[in-house]
Structure formats: C-alpha cells, structure tokens
C-alpha cells in the first residue's frame, strides 16, 4: 500500500531522475472554505487571486501568470497548492479564487463526462460552452501537458507493447495513478470499454511523482499514468504508449477565470502569455524544477525574461 505524500514539493529519490509532482491537497473538514482557510466570499476589488493545483508544473504556470500581471500593474494574491478540481472549482465560482491555469481535455471531462470531442480545437470549442455561466476560458495555449500511459522500456520490449491496444495481449497488468483515476473516463473503465483491456489498479496519490515512478521501475505496477510534459519520461527512457482510439482527450493549457475579474487589462496579459508558451517550454521548466531544484518564482521570472513579453 502506498501512502499519500504530504502537501509540498517532492524531492527526487536517490539517483533516479524523477518527477517532483506533489500530492493532492485535501480540505480540512472543519473549514468553511474549499481552500482550507477561514476566508469566504469574493476577492478584494481589483485583486487577482491566482490558484494552482497541488502539482509543481501547474504552480509554475500560475506563477508566470502572477508575475506577468504584476509587471502590468495588477495586484495579485497567490493561493497555490490547493488540490484538485473538487476543491478549487467551487472557489473559482464563488470568487475566492479568480484565475487558474487549467488543462482543456480534463476540465471538459469534469463538466461533460459524455463529451465526444477529441482534438484540441474541438475540445476547446466544447469547453467554452461547458463551463458555468460565471466562468470563462481565455485563449488556449499550444502547450499541452496531458495524462499518458507509460511503461518501462524492458516491459515494452518483452511484451511487444507500444500502444494502449497492445496491453490486451498481456496478462496481469496493474495500472498506477492518483486514486481518482479509478473512475475517470480514461481510467480502468475506459481501458475496458475502448480497448478491451482489463487492468488491476493501485492508487498512488503523488500526481505521477516519485512514488509512482518507483512503483513502475520496481515492477509493482506495469503501467503508470504520467503527465506528458514530465521530464522523468525521457530521463528514465520510458515508453509512452500511443493512443490510436483517443482514450485521452487533447489537454492544452487554458486559463479559467471568474468573469468578474476578466477585464481587458487582465485577459490581454494572460492571452499573451499563453500564446508564447510551448510544450517544449513546459518540459524544460519542469526539468528545472525537478533536476535543478529551482523555485517556481525563479523559473517563471527567467521564462518571462527569455520571451521578452512585457
């Protein structure tokens, strides 16, 4: 049994180059706020409250948004490492948080589990109508960081597995990922209905971090759900399984904002950032976090300087 990591950034284990993803942050049962604080209601007038998931890569993007807005005269409050959507989406709806970096495909499936959209363009179009009336998505970025299924090179070669479909010919396969993956449309139920693949499931609540990677390398699990921009995939020579039937929706970076905060002075800045952000940038910045142990603030500052946006 794997235990959940405490909230915060996770260091790499031993000599393995691993992802520094952090564990899901739960809400205190005694708190009146989804953020685990006593504050309620909307943010102070004129203040942009930026949140992030309990995932280091998402925090980097949130920090880029924060510094870009500050450089353009906005007052920003940071509320990072909130957790997953059941925690922060109510805060966005209430105005306690006003801006959040999101992932288009997963966000769409949160609101519409029966969606048939698959491509980046179709997912974005569907998402714009799926979000609640008091929220809106800003411009979608080219940068993508989505769920993907990965196996070790040894497992791939021994079993002839290079696609998700190939898993159907392998017996006794166990999938590892965050606990909620068990019921996600692309989790075990989706594997069975889309690919006729039956898997066991081991919950490892570290958002594709060191415990997930270690379980895969130790063969405690044979398939790991790891985000596609995670540097541990390349560092450990993992094989990302192709997805010919589009079990995973395209999941590009997209800002989600409370409409009360969506003034042109804010949206123009964030759209400019997202237009400049690439998948290669995400991989590089994630590597700086994992391998170089740089802070999100330093990574964001250097990225903004390199793009000469403002």
Automatic annotation (TrEMBL):
GO terms for molecular function: transmembrane transporter activity. GO terms for cellular component: ATP-binding cassette (ABC) transporter complex. InterPro entries: ABC_Gly_betaine_transp_sub-bd. Residues 1-25 form the signal peptide. Residues 47-305 form the ABC-type glycine betaine transport system substrate-binding domain. Gene3D superfamilies: Osmoprotection protein (prox), domain 2 (3.40.190.120), Periplasmic binding protein-like II (3.40.190.10). Keywords: Signal. SUPFAM superfamilies: Periplasmic binding protein-like II. The keyword Signal applies. This is Glycine/betaine ABC transporter. The lineage of its organism: Bacteria, Bacillati, Actinomycetota, Actinomycetes, Micrococcales.
